[in-house]
Amino acid sequence: MRMKIPAHVAFIIDTLEKAGFEAYAVGGCVRDTILGRKPGDWDITTSATPKQVKQLFQRTVDTGIKHGTVTVLLKQCGYEVTTYRVDGEYEDGRHPKEVVFTASLTEDLKRRDFTINAMAYSPKTGIIDEFRGMEDLQKGIIRAVGEAKERFTEDALRILRAVRFSAQLGFVIEEKTGAAIREMAQRLSLISKERIQAELDKLLLSSHPEYLKRAWELGITAVIMPGFDRIMETPQRNRYHDLSVGEHTLKALQSVRADHLLRWTMLLHDFGKPQASIMDPDGTIHFYGHAKISAELAKGVIRGLKFDNATLDGVTKLVYYHDFPFPVSKAGVRKAMNRLGDELFPLLLEVCEADSRGKNSYAQETYLPKLVTIREYYRKIREAGDCTSLKDLAVNGRDLIEAGMKPGRELGAVLERCLEVVLDCPEKNTKEYLLEFAAESAE
Known about the structure:
The protein has 22 helices and 13 strands. The chain has helices spanning 7-18, 28-35, 50-56, 105-110, 133-139, 148-154, 157-169, 175-184, 193-204, 212-217, 221-224, 226-232, 245-254, 260-268, 273-276, 290-304, 309-320, 330-357, 361-384, 397-402, 409-424, 431-442; strands at 23-26, 43-46, 60-64, 69-74, 77-83, 85-87, 99-101, 119-122, 126-129, 141-142, 172-173, 278-279, 285-286. The relative contact order is 0.06. A seven-stranded mixed sheet has the order 3-4-5-2-1-8-9. Helix 6 packs across helix 8. The longest helix has 28 residues, at 330-357. The termini are far apart. The protein is 53% helix and 11% strand. The protein is α+β, with helices and mostly antiparallel strands.
């Protein structure tokens, strides 16, 4: 089988081969090309040592020289070229204590995680597939290379990567590999929060975010996100739901587009329901105040996974407001726009729709028409240019000071009261009216 590879990759492989070395594109780039997907990057493995690689190319960077990796720079692009290696003992569940270079491609491929990632390619030899990776690609299977427990002992992050690849590709996890994951899931506690975050993010942004359920079934979420286990175990018996909290969450995840803030919001939006659950004598279950509790729990999850402040702020706000906490009116929409801001309010509409689509038909018939109305109000508010924030107010602090008000905390409070008036009645957003209102308000 011949593969189409980038010119730079072909040049690196050809240069190494002409110098008497073996060289191959390897790993995910081979897998993705076979599947017709565009690889994110291209990695090359070679029998040449790092020193020999550096001698063959004009511009290189020692990105991982200790582990045999040199980045070859061609124009504005960098390509990692790694010497065939055998990993030594893994002491921290993630990194080998040492690596030993080898002349054997087979030995190098043997240390890789899954069969579909253990194929190599060069234009001269074609595909090298020592572990039935092509067969597993055709069958849609995630299978560990060799003994699964050994692979997960070497690098515990592979436990979560198995589910992530499964979600990205729509593949199933092979039985023995799954059994090893279930047995060794606790080893994920050895992995840094940043690494867990990166894998979960890729899983949630995949075509199958609902495959997070597989992580629950295999005991992974119990280690890295126990709040998910709690919602999977929490029933919902009321007129809006036919599913458990967790199953509703998975359905809502499928109902929203693959956006970072949206997917994390849908994952966490009902995390507070187990804590808020109250059952009536007839068995009906209510979750009063769950949005506020969920927002606090979401904040803890996002912080714990070491996300940036923009994610922390965005997800927390969207979770807090996900449950239609404002009147279905133009004033209600303007006030919600003010609380959330120009960037988050349109996302809230997507969150509310996904949440509704994760519920039963009665709930959808109840809430989706409201969303249509809210979107129409939002469109008209934007077209009219209505004021929805202090920056759009017809007066500012300087205007109030010039009108005789003293600087200080009360000045800010008066501006907020002016804004509240304008959010209710946008036609009152005139300097004349607001200066008069401010004077009366300050008395």
